[in-house]
Amino acid sequence: MSIRTYHNAQVYDVAQAKFIPNSWFSVDLTTGRITATGTGATPADAQELVDLNNKFITPGMINTHVHIINKVFPYGPKASREPFEIAMQAQANLNEMLASGVTYTRVLATA
Prior knowledge:
- The chain is an alpha/beta fold.
- Helix content is 15%, strand content 41%.
- It is built from 1 helix and 7 strands.
- The strands form 2 sheets. Strands 1, 2, 3, 4 and 5 form a 5-stranded mixed beta sheet that branches. Strands 6-7 form a two-stranded parallel sheet.
- A hairpin with a 5-residue loop joins strand 2 (18-28) and strand 3.
- It is elongated.
């Protein structure tokens, strides 16, 4: 199991509804799951450390109304596009959402 520990961050605590400064968290690189969290000094046995330079860490956002295959600008009729073009547009839209912090979507009316 390979663990990476991120430190020197301001992590949002949902229970307290505030950012906790000087926080750290460890991630299992195989599963992508957080294995430990804390504040202050990182664990003495931490092998791979990444300094987040006091950046803010928040939970992922949820978008519950997405038309994932739509091409917004310029907008054209769906029927005029080939299936691979529709798939490429959907992938581009998903990548853009992930880059902006959306980690969950509910897709509507894409048929």
